[in-house]
Amino acid sequence: MRVWLALIAAGSLLAAPEAAVRRLDGSTISSKQIDETVSRSMAAAEVTGVAIAILNDGHIAYLKAYGLRDVARKLPLTEDSVMGAASLSKAAFAYLVMRLVASKALDLDKPIQQYLPKPLPEYDAYRDLAGDPRYRKITARMLLSHTAGFPNLRWLNDDRKLNINFEPGSRYAYSGEGIQLLQLVVEEIAGKPVKDLMQDRVFGPLGMTSTSMVTEARFADNCAIGYDEWGRPLGCQQRKSASAAGSMQTTIRDYARFLEAVLASKGLPVATRDLMLTPQVEIRSKHQFPSLSTETTEAYRAIRLSYGLGWGLYWSPYGKVFFKEGHDEGFRHYAVGFEKPKTGLIIMTNSSNGEGIFQDLLETLIRDTFTPYDWEGFVRYADLPARKPLPNHTEISLDASRLDRLAGRYSLPGVVLTIAREGGHLSLRENNEPPEQLFAESELSFFSKTSDDVVTFDLDSADRAAQLVIHTGGRSIAVKKE
Questions:
Q1: Torsion angle of alpha carbons 242, 243, 246, 249, nearest 10°?
Q2: Which residue, of 91, 213, 230, 391, has the fewest CB within 10 Å?
Q3: Tally of domains in the chain
Q4: For the domain that residue 416 is a member of, what is the CATH number?
C-alpha cells in the first residue's frame, strides 16, 4: 500500500483539542471524526500532506495538519509549515487593491492606462498590445473580475504573445495575466513593489507572520516540499520575484487569519468589503478552464455563479458563498466562505493529488454540497482515470563540448531561460527561479527526473543551438536563443 498510511500517522502534534465543530446544516462533527475523514481520504487519494482550517461564526474553530512536509526525512506537516499558495495569492492581492479603493487611491472604473506614465505597449511585457487600442479601455474592475479579455497565461497561445480576445468587460475568462497587469498599476500608484505593499497593508496588519510574496530564508526550516501525482518530490517552492497572481508563500494558520478578516471586514470598510464580494459578471462558461473556451451552459444559473473582485461567487441555501482555488505543481488548495453564517473551510495540500479529496472534505467537514465541482475541474479521487505510468527515460553521457553548445540564454517576452552545463548534465533556470536539472537521453533531448517535462534543442546550419522546445502537458513551447 506504499507509504501513505504511515505518513498520515505523522499528523501534527499541535492538533486542536477535542471539540465539536458546527457545520452549515447545524449538525456537529467531532475532532475524531474530522481526523478519520481526512486520514481516510488522504490514504485513498495518495495525498502527502493536508492542512485544514474550519471557521465557525467567523473565527477559527479547528486548525490541524496531517501527513508529511518532507517524506525522505519523515518531517510532519504542521499548522506553521510554509507552502506555495498558488492562486490563493490573487484573493490576498484583491484585498490590497480594495484597500487602495477605500482610500480613493484607485478608481475601479478609471482606465488603468491613466495611472501609467507611458503607453502600456511601451512596457516590454506589453509590447504585444501595440496594435490593439482596446487596451485603453481596461479598468481595474475588469482585471479583478477576469473580464479584460486576456488569456490565463500568454504562453498558452500558439504564438506565445499576449493578446485581447474579446471586448474588455463583456465576459468572464480567468486570467493570471490580468492580475499581473494590475500589479504593475498598483506599484505605480503606491510607488512601492507589491512585496512591500502586501507586507505593510495585508500581512502585517492581519498578523500573517509567516507569509510573504517571495521565499524567505526564515521559511527554510519549516517549508513543505511539493509532491507530484506519483509522489515524486518537487522541492520547496522557491519564489525570488513577487507575482500577485501566484507567488505568495503562506501557512494554513496565516491564511485562516486572512479568511477571518474577509468574513469580519477587518481592515476594510464594510461597504468596500461588500463591493469586493458583489457579482461583477455572470459566469456561463461550462468549465473554468481552458479559460478562453466559448462553450456555455445554463447549468449554474440556479446558483447564480459569478465573479466578484478577486473571488468567485455563488448562492446557496445559506446565502452568498465566496471561494478561491490554488493550483500549482505539487500544491493544491481551496478556500470557501459562507458569508451569512460566517462558516469557512480552507484546504491546503502539498500534493498534486490534493484536488481529489476536496469533495469529501467539503461535504463531510462542513456539509458543503454546493461547490460547482465540474466547473472548477475538481474530480474526486475515486472517479479519476487510472494514473498514467511514469515515462521511461534512459540517461546517456555526453561530453562537455556537446553540452556546452546548448548553453546560453533563450527568451520570450518577460521570460528568460538560462541553460547551463553542470558537470555531465544541463540545468534550466527560468528568470531568477531555482534551476531544474536536465539529463540527456539523446544528443538533443533532455528530461527531468522530477517532472514529465522534456526539453529538446534545434540546431542551425552551423550546428549551433537555435532554439529549445519545452514539451509539457501535451504542449510544445518553442523558445529562441538570444
A1: 10
A2: 391
A3: 3
A4: 2.40.128
- What CA–CA distance (Å, rounded) separates 105 from 98? 10
pLDDT digits (tens, 9 = 90+) for 140-194: 999 999 999 999 999 888 888 999 999 999 999 999 999 999 999 999 999 999 9
The grid cell for 257 is 487569519
> CA-to-CA distance for 153 and 162, rounded, in angstroms?
8
Whether 341 is in a domain gets the answer yes
> What CATH number has the domain bearing residue 287?
3.40.710.10
| Dihedral class, residue 256 (left if φ above 0, else alpha if ψ from -120 to 50, else beta) | alpha
Q: Please, what's the largest Cα pairwise distance for the chain?
A: 73
Taking a C-beta distance cutoff of 8 angstroms, is the pair 83, 224 a contact? Answer: yes
State pTM to two decimals: 0.89
Each residue's pLDDT tens digit, 38-86 = 999 999 999 999 999 999 999 999 999 999 999 999 999 999 999 999 9
Q: Is residue 289 part of a domain?
A: yes
Pick from 322, 353, 383: which residue ends a domain? 383
Is position 255 within any domain?
A: yes
Whether the CB-CB separation of 253 and 346 falls below 8 Å is answered with no
366 plus 226 within the same structural domain = yes
Task: Report in angstroms the alpha-carbon separations of 382 from 196, 349, 369, 474.
Answer: 43, 18, 17, 24
Residue 175 structural domain: 95-190
The verdict on 356 and 223 lying in the same domain is yes
**Three-state DSSP state, 214:** coil
DSSP summary character for residue 341: T
CB atoms within 10 A of CB 473: 11
Q: Is 243 in the same domain as 325?
A: yes
- Please give the order of strands across the beta sheet that includes 331-338: 75-76, 59-70, 49-56, 343-349, 331-338, 319-328, 312-316, 306-307, 281-282
Q: Which helix (H) or strand (E) holds 316?
A: strand 312-316
